[in-house]
Amino acid sequence: MERLDVQQLAHLLTAVADAICANRDFLCEEDGKIGDGDHGFTMYSGFDALRSALAQPDFPTANALFAAAGQTLMNNMGGASGIVFSSLFSGGAKALPPDTRELDLAAIASFFEAGQAAIMKRGKAAPGDKTMLDALYPAVDSLRQSADRAATLSEAFAAAATAAEQGATATRDMIARHGRAKSLGERALGHRDPGAVSVQILFAAIRDWIALQ
Amino acid sequence: MKKILNNPAHLVPEALDGLVASHPRLLRRVEGVTGIVRRNPVPDKVALIAGGGSGHEPLFAGFIGDGLLDGVCSGSYFTSPTPECILKTIQAVDSGRGVFYPILNYAGDVMNFDVATEMAEELGIQVSFLYIADDVASAPPERAGDRRGIAGALLLAKILGAAAREGADHAALAEIGAKVNDGLRSMGIALTAGTIPSAGKPTFELPADQMEFGMGIHGEPGIQRVPLQPADQIVTAMMERILADRPYKQGDRVCLLVNNLGATTYSELMVAAGKAISILDAAGIAIHHVEAGTYCTSSDMSGLSLSLLRLDDQLERLYDAPAWSPAYKR
How far is B153 from chain A (nearest CA, A)? Predict the structure, then answer.
């Protein structure tokens, strides 16, 4: 299975949504250390609405699927996370060739690269600022490297999930330059960015879904 | 945690509905989103909206009315509203001269309003905005643009509201707003953290003998945790920081806002106000008006914030202009 069609992509997204929702309380706890403790609720609102939206019958194209995912997240989250996580999917969707009906690894890497670019443009953050980008950037980079080596989807997402986890862990030692924690200075040290933890969960969920196929 | 609620997940729409039901000739809900607006758009003026997360009460929803705001879009507790909520509120207040909005300087508010601004512009609605970044504790003066927006937002809304009612256009509102921001500084302290109702517990733990300096209004920890001090010491420390920041000088004329962050009593506010006033007197700074009360909370945090707004003749006239809203009157 080296190409994912629209239906498979919808199932994959549902698995991601399930994982995020299952981690609601954990993400709130992570957020409580340097933020206001509601990151999990915000993510749950968006991703629970997403899995409801995905339960309906087929999206005709991957473009429509991911655009709808972005829209659903944007309309159901609010907060910085709402814009950031919706931009991942909306930005990725916009970069797909018209009428895309399946994605291989290279196309998936391009999708995430475009989503990441959309996030960076909207949020004006960069890696090193202690944001979700610190988990996303290494994961996306890893996907591109895997695509260049013609790795399998399974290998690629195992590597990406590890990269995301390492990136999220690395945020422990960063001082925040964006978002809620940026006024904490050194008090933010020793705690991970909750958005980065969400990204870690997202890539782990994709890895796990692929492993089950 | 004991709260007067039904389902915590429905707190925001139920609270908005209750507010609308309390003032049915003034207010109505925006259909499909958690926004409320004046029942009828006011003709011949730039409309003013504001918005942000719920839980900073009664800001902003309580400040809709004559000489103040025309509409408010409320997100979930401590969470910025979505672009859809903001846009529908914009559309509901526009009477043809477009919409102006102050935006509290938080990543979420900035980004959601940013997207909504693009959407409004695509629909041909003239929109403009400025950021409120009055919290001196959240960044040093050289990074003033990074500062959080807190209770000073009330003073900005008051002045912009008066200006808009007089017919100020977008450019004039931007200029007046910039002048307000230039002379507006705030800071908060907390004795206990607030609770987000759906979480059911305080957003951080403060030991009984400790207090927090310089936290914002979202339940995030502050910049410094110190032993609990007497009121005079607390206020002195806050005023030192605020006065030095602009800086405010002898001969300046200011308004003072003493704001309850949720669970603090009126007496406590008055003790703090008395000390702040004596500090201003000693500094030779004239006090035009003191506003003390509950305007911009962090849920049920025990604590208070102080804001100073430097006035000139124009700002004083706009500040003194009569205004009426459910939660603030002048």
Answer: 18
Looking at the annotation, which residues of B are catalytic? 56, 218
Per residue in B184-202, pLDDT (tens digit) is: 999 999 999 999 888 788 8
CA atoms within 13 A of residue B137's CA, in its CB half-sphere: 27
Report in angstroms the alpha-carbon separations of B321 from B68, B160, B296.
10, 11, 21
State whether A122 and B115 contact (CB < 8 Å): yes
CB-based contact B221 A38, cutoff 8 Å: no
Q: Which residues of A touch B148 (CB under 8 A)?
A: 183
List CB contacts (< 8 A) between A76 and chain B: 82
In chain B, what percentage of residues exceed pLDDT 90?
A: 91
Banded model confidence at residue B308, pLDDT cuts 50, 70, 90: very high
**B196 near A CB under 8 A:** yes
CA B206 vs. chain centroid, Å, equals 24
